[in-house]
Amino acid sequence: MVDGPERQTDDEQALVARTGRGDQIAFRLLVDAHARRLHALAWRMLMDGTEAEDVVQESFARLWTGAPRWRAGSGSVGGWLARVCTNLCIDRLRRRRFWADEEVPDMADDRVAATEAIDARRLDQAVAAALAALPDRQRTAIVLTYHEHWPNAEAAQMMGLHIKAFESLLLRARTALRRALTARGFDGSEGQAA
User: Fold this and answer.
1) Same domain, 5 and 95
2) Is the pLDDT of residue 125 over 90?
3) What's the whole-number average pLDDT of the chain?
4) Enclosing H/E stretch for 98
């Protein structure tokens, strides 16, 4: 099986059908194929390992309960799981905003590093802070496209958008990210931000 934004194989169709009949081995194979990618997506969205694990577990729980209703040809399992995971992350981010208005904490770096490593770390922190400050949908578009490498058409489908609306959202997100980084003193000569 392929772990990535690819079309669902006939093998995965069969695994989902077997999972729908309660086959735990088939379910385990689906988990093994998609867990790492889902965890990376959730971590980038939430920036919290424990919450990311919870979201991944909930995503797979929904696959387990929804497998009996899965229709062949309804899209890839990976795409469906990524959409469920993304929506669960957005729900958690919205709940967080009601509970905390804290800034993103700085990460301490106890290692002695060269100037280049320090500059790279500063850029990473600035990107993380700027990404965290984006509206949920803009953040999701950036993460799906630049961190998870989903093609625009599939990312748009995951977000329930037409491709043109997604591309417009992505353009607004990149513009906002660029402005935020410029305001923090990064002019683009440091490397790719997203």
Assistant:
1) yes
2) no
3) 83
4) helix 77-99
Which residue segment(s) compose the domain that 75 sits in? 1-102
Same domain, 40 and 96: yes
Helix axes 115-133, 163-183, angle to 10 degrees: 130
Q: Are residues 98 and 110 in the same domain?
A: no
How many percent of the chain have pLDDT more than 70?
79
Transcribe 17-85 into DSSP letters: HHHHTT-HHHHHHHHHHHHHHHHHHHHHHH--HHHHHHHHHHHHHHHHHHGGG--TTS--HHHHHHHHH
For residues 44 and 190, the model is more confident at: 44
Residue 32 has a pLDDT of: 95
Predicted pLDDT of residue 115? 66
